[in-house]
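Ticket #4471: structure export looks truncated?
Reporter: QA, pipeline team
Priority: medium

Steps to reproduce: submit the single chain below to the structure queue and open the exported record.
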Amino acid sequence: MEQLSSSKITLIVPKQHVKTVKQALERAGQLDRSSKITPESPNKKEHTSPRNVVVSRNGDDRAEPDRSLAATPADTPVAIQGPSSSSQQTQFPELCSDAIGGRYIYPESFQDDFQLEDQIRTYQSSSHTTTTLCDSSDRVSGSKEQQRMCIPTSILYPQHSDGLERILNAQETSDLKLRVLQDLGLSALSQDVSISHDAPVTTLAPRRTNRNPVHKALEKSLTSFLGLLPSSQALTVEALVSNFPEGYSVYSPMLLLPHNAFSSAPWKSLIATHSVNSDAMISLWQSMAKAVGATHVAINSPIPLSTRTTVASSAEMTNSENILRSPVNLTPLYGDFGSTPTPQTISNPTATDFANALWVTARQNGIWQTWAPLYTMFSRGNVREKARILNLPTLTTGLDTASAAVDLYAGIGYFAFSYRKSSQALEKGIKQVLCWEINPWSVEGLRRGAEMNKWTCRVLKQEDILRLRQRGQPDHSDLDDADFVVLETSNEAADLDYPSLRSPRLPVRHVNLGLLPSSKLSWRVAVAMLDTKRQGWIHVHENVNVKDVESMKNEVEKTFQDLLYTIDGGLERRVCVVHVERVKMYAPGVVHCVFDVCVG
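Actual output as written to the record:
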């Protein structure tokens, strides 16, 4: 039996904005979960009439491994345009990106299995997500046209009082779109998003079979759990399971649930009467963990640029910049995660704190990384930039001697590991990566990760660095042979510390500036660290308004040229931004870019 439902608005969105729009709809409770997100039909791309009918078709609901970047606060990566000249294309190769599928590949080898490794297992974040988002012809051609996706919503299309649809003119359609986007907090995307509407046909069908291990575990546990609840609490297994997101990530041994896991009305009702750490709920988390081979469960949340801290002498809450980039509001649900973060354990952890903490792992591009989730952030969304570093020709060709790379914001080795791996089989290339990092938990993660990858790592603590600065000689005789030398201190004097580490020193040809939202305070240091006799590169990460990328490129180039002139004192070196890599959408209208600055 079929029933016609009222027309609902469909948002037609460029592929790189899908996650941003989808999350906004989820927060507002206006994502239509009865239909799928589908690619825009080719024969509708040129139509703008509000009368266009976009019908979301129910398709095969079988689970597919999801390589989306849904666990991060940043949006999915976008397909990036290569530089205009052929020489630049050779120097900084273009990768073809399947943004939602999480595949980053060379156009000429698009059939290769390039993806996150099995250590990170995720499933589709919603029943809307289609698995066919970038066909082979797109990958081969490296087409610059961004595919658009149709996202179904539960927002009703305007009707007359008698229930008949209104026919809107172009201005009314534009006004409607602006109101919808404003209500969703997406006004910045008004130029990129269009709207349509449909009157979908819904079929009264049997309940959908649960598609992943977490949902199956939920259904089994909730069946016995809800049987013990009073009948007055109108909760059903079907309501709870169908409103639980299908997306999750496993960072062994932790199951990480998405931030919106409990945002629906049924889950809010359940948690309002049953604490997440009650015996019944703990049994629920335990069954979910067991279903995916995990021993711990946590729920994810964004990592903001500021944290709220309590001053010991006052109950007054104040904002301070989160310079350690520590996770905020990551909520453990099951398992022992170690010491609860305090100002002491965050900034001055002991060996016991490290030993007692939960350490989780991920493997990307064949490289292991590890971190303590209560104390350190991890962004899967940077996998594309990590892969690009691995394949930069400037790291592997045209080299006259061994060299060093510098990462002034090293973290747990997000990018530093890629620099080392790119050249580890070469006689000439990057033989050592010098890292500066102020978060002791990140330093420990970098050290452990290096060992997991069979690299040597030497860490210089504050007292070691003070002795180094006073005596001009390192206390460790094996620094020269280490794959990684990590200075647990601010990078403000990195250009002065490096000459004291070794003699003769390796020439620095690559400097990574991975801090967001801006690394401008380190630009001078980066220029000063480059070898003056060889061509070098500085990779500058910045968050930029999508409309300002070109002007930001010009600003970066001019600023670095001015810094170079000040530092060189007359040496004839020149600066050129040879490539801009758009890594991912950071927020509506804001893109995370990497500016490749060539100095030489």
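Status: closed, not a bug. The export was complete when the record was re-opened. Leaving a note from the reviewer for reference: Residues 1-5, 46-144, 201-207, 302-320 have pLDDT under 50 and may be disordered.
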